[in-house]
Automatic annotation (TrEMBL):
It comes from Fasciola gigantica. Residues 6-53 form the F-box domain. It comes from the Eukaryota. InterPro entries: F-box-like_dom_sf (IPR036047), F-box_dom (IPR001810), LRR_dom_sf (IPR032675). This is F-box domain-containing protein. Gene3D superfamilies: Ribonuclease Inhibitor (3.80.10.10). It holds the Pfam family F-box-like. PROSITE patterns: FBOX (PS50181).
């Protein structure tokens, strides 16, 4: 009886091996695949495997970043780059220039968890061809306001500066580009729109939100203001605040279809203080502004999403009940942390509109889990970044 010779992975064509390797993260390519043999070492550095680079699986320290910059892995063939730095990392233009100066076709850049020595130094090396920029949980010692006005990102359509507490209105305007934004996330930027330390009244802050966004990104479709409106209201301010002020946002941004107002303690306090009839009218005014009747408006939206997160159930119910009477054929989805806390507060006699849904943020996030490629083959404590000559060791 004759036995066929043993076939190993090395016998597979390079094209098949590259397809297998494409399911691995860049960490795995460097720390595992490169160690097998010289053939795999070369294949792990194929440009097609480095067109979308995700280094967010674990914190990246600056020494590893410098070694990575010396390898011909990230360059004109790279279209997206995501890096999560170690909390003690201090970024400067000198640190990032070797990594980004050849990325002439970079469309998406994400940088998370680091300290910026100077915001202007960072943005000076950011490729102008970017479509999407995410600067999340970055701390900045010297923002450099005057120089920042020279930043030019003309193709930017998505901007995420969540949890960058140093961001104020002038910095945001400088980053917005030339009115091309469709997605803006300013979660946790509580200094924006006349917040701390100026602490304008809610009416004034809402007017500033509408004026600034309508002027610089009138085509917004997704807006996150989570943890922005967090200052407490006194009794006098509550009495002088117009109940329908929330509707001014979709009135200014007519393309808006997704709004995140979670952790907005100022708005929660306002709606909690209103009689139910006024609260329903305020919520209805918001829905009519963001879901206009197609017979009187040319802007038709198939779906509108409102994220309320941990808002009190009685406040969430105001928006759910007000949405039942919408005459537009727009599908409405209200996201909260726990749907089970909302159901007991809904009136059983309320007519059910099949276009109105209440969903849980937790179940939604589970559906958006990344593919297994984002997980490493080896535990973090065992990872060493090897190179044939020890560059990444």
């Amino acid at each position: 009886m004759e036995f066929s010779p043993t076939v190993s992975l090395d016998d597979l064509p390079n094209e098949l091996l590259l397809q297998v390797f494409s399911y691995l993260s860049q960490y795995d390519l460097l720390s595992c695949v490169s160690r097998v043999n010289s053939k795999w070492f070369r294949l792990a550095r194929t440009q097609s495997l480095w067109s979308h680079v995700d280094l967010s699986a674990r914190p990246l320290k600056l020494p590893a970043l410098r070694r990575l910059s010396k390898l011909p892995l990230i360059g004109p063939h790279t279209f997206s780059l995501s890096i999560r730095f170690s909390p003690d990392a201090k970024l400067s233009g000198r640190t990032l220039t070797p990594l980004l100066h050849n990325c002439s076709h970079l469309k998406k850049l994400e940088m998370t968890d680091a300290s910026l020595i100077s915001c202007t130094e960072l943005l000076a090396v950011v490729p102008v061809c970017l479509n999407s920029l995410k600067l999340c949980r970055l701390r900045c010692k010297r923002p450099g306001l005057l120089e920042l006005s020279q930043v030019q990102l003309p193709r930017l359509t998505s901007l995420d500066v969540s949890q960058c507490a140093w961001i104020t209105d002038p910095y945001l305007v400088s980053l917005m580009g030339i009115n091309n934004l469709v997605n803006l996330n300013v979660t946790g930027c509580y200094r924006l729109f006349g917040g701390t330390p100026r602490s304008l009244r809610l009416n004034e802050r809402m007017d500033r939100i509408c004026l600034l966004l309508e002027r610089h990104c009138s085509g917004l479709r997704r807006l996150s203001l989570a943890s922005v409106l967090t200052l407490p209201l006194d009794r006098r301010e509550i009495a002088s605040t117009r109940p329908d002020l929330l509707s001014s946002i979709p009135q200014a941004l007519t393309q808006l279809s997704h709004v995140d107002l979670s952790d907005s303690r100022t708005l929660v306090q306002l709606f909690s203080s209103l009689p139910k009839s006024q609260g329903l009218m305020a919520a209805q005014s918001f829905w009519e502004s963001i879901c206009p009747d197609p017979s009187i408006s040319e802007c038709f939206k198939s779906k509108v999403t409102l994220v309320l997160g941990r808002w009190p159930p009685e406040c969430v119910v105001l928006f759910v009940e007000a949405a039942q009477d919408l005459t537009s054929q727009c599908s409405v989805c209200v996201f909260v942390d726990e749907v089970s806390l909302i159901d007991p507060h809904l009136s059983s006699s309320l007519p059910s509109n099949p276009l109105v849904r209440v969903e849980s943020l937790i179940s939604s996030s589970r559906r958006k889990l990344k593919r297994p490629a984002s997980h490493s083959l080896r535990p973090e404590s065992c990872i060493k970044w090897p190179g044939r000559d020890g560059l990444m060791a």
